Amino acid sequence: MPYKAAKKQAQHIDDRRRHYILAFVSYITSAVMFIYGIKNLGAEQVLLPIILFTTAALFLLNVFVFHVSHNLERACIIEAMLVGSFVLSLVYQGGFNNTALYWVFPFPAILFGLLGVRNALLCNALLLITLCIMLFFPDLIQAHYKEAESSRFIASLVIVIIVCWINDHYRERSHRAMDLLQQSKELQANTDSLTQLANRRFIDSALLLNIQQQPAEFLPLAFIMCDIDHFKKLNDRFGHDGGDDVLKAVAQLFRRNLRQQDFACRVGGEEFLLILPHITHQDALSVAEKIRTQLYQQPMVQQDKSYKVSASFGVAICDNAEQFHAGVKLADTMLYKAKNNGRNQVCG
Ligand SMILES: Nc1nc2c(ncn2[C@@H]2O[C@H](COP(=O)(O)OP(=O)(O)OP(=O)(O)O)[C@@H](O)[C@H]2O)c(=O)[nH]1
């Protein structure tokens, strides 16, 4: 699978994970809150059912807005703020039979699930500081917690936050490592190992797809098909390794003469295809002529012997993505014309 498609799929799976956490926290928690709210109706604690019903209604409203707008990022931030305010108001009030502190423990994991490592760590730190202030300055809150209970609660909450942080930090790192691996595999699959130029697979998959998706970025483009002349004789004279050196030198010559937006690909043994976006036919012919002259004038040295290498070139222009293959074929036809006319020349 091409890298971009794999990355998109991985992002889609990660969004699904956050979507499920959002739905779980909204639906299940609001159902639990409604049940506890009804149970506490009429009890002397007036504040508790108000907190429970209000938070449950806001959870449901948030998830409803998400289903309409599909804005996952915004829904997760609002959800985290709702969970945070709920937890703090519950700790302030004390909850049913003073059990509010138990409801704080799922909070760090929910935050990491909704916000990602950095933001979740920041929010958890803020929560911890606020809870410390509330618990160690009991005059500020309505509920009464035992001192030993408060200190053990803070200690165990710190442990939960650290474990969640380690877990999510390494999960994100392993995802990044897999992403890099996929990227380098894609690069390898699209690169010719001898010359380090792009290969035919790159043209057929990545480049053509990009041209079809964003034609204005590329068109009109020129194809320059290039084939080294009498390469078989070079191989026979200097051996396969000598021939390889010539291929590498030619690749280097392309790199020196092409612009950053141009593509040089090795499409066969001693055959290359140069793809030049946003260029006129006349300019493409000039580029081919410049490379041809430089190659012929640059002496190659092999086994202390200096010799000349020449190549033939065929040029064609492509105005729309549908003409891509026809354009490559025309450049190939022009190349054979150059070969038939005596080699070491440009036709187009
Ligand atoms: N050294 C080397 N040679 C290769 C490689 N791939 C293909 N070849 C050789 O390239 C030669 C191509 O020969 P031909 O197709 O007859 O072309 P040519 O000798 O260049 O003749 P014209 O193209 O007509 O000028 C063959 O001998 C192949 O073995 C490679 O990676 N390295």
Automatic annotation (TrEMBL):
The chain crosses the membrane at residues 20-38, 50-68, 75-94, 100-117, 124-141, 153-170. SMART domains: GGDEF. Keywords: Membrane, Transmembrane, Transmembrane helix. Its EC number is 2.7.7.65. It is an enzyme of class 2 (transferase). CDD domains: GGDEF (cd01949). It catalyses: 2 GTP = 3',3'-c-di-GMP + 2 diphosphate. Gene3D superfamilies: 3.30.70.270. This is diguanylate cyclase. It comes from Rheinheimera baltica.
